[in-house]
Amino acid sequence: TDPLTGLYNRRYLNELIKRLESEGEIPNDSALIMIDLDNFKTINDTYGHLAGDLILTKTGTKIKKHIRKTDIACRYGGDEFLVFLPGANEAAARTIAEAIRNDLVADCSYSEEGAPISITVSIGISENRLDDSFDGLFLRADAALYQAKKLGRSRVCVHAAGRAPAQRVCAP
Known about the structure:
Blueprint: E1 8-9, H1 10-22, E2 30-37, H2 40-47, H3 49-66, E3 72-75, E4 80-86, H4 90-106, E5 109-110, E6 116-117, E7 121-127, H5 134-150, E8 156-159, E9 169-171
Parallel strand pairs: 1-3, 7-8
Antiparallel strand pairs: 2-4, 2-7, 3-4, 5-6, 8-9
């Protein structure tokens, strides 16, 4: 686990997915949520790394609050998080992602000096395709996340099965 957020770490997720794929146990109905804190480097540079750590800790707590017991959440990178949702479709993933985004946006942290720190997050979602690999699921969630960033951040974009990139669904 990641000691700061209490979520699984990237290595655990990679090992789990590898095992599930080799055993053919990834459900056909699955989704992936990719979360990225918008302009996180600016928070660290402006308010310091302790404030940044507080934001990361809160993010982990809020992710855990909104996911199901069967979902697998991990801190994938510095300010990037993944949530694998076995047995979930696009609608379920979108509901969870919006709940996480709304909870994070509504929260306010404070610097050591008492300055308010608000954050936004961009989220990409993908849905499993028939005979899909986790890599395909990951790449489409990443593309949807990039689309969310490109459209102005603080939104959820979905790259659903069978939908071309130009047809992604995004909502602020």
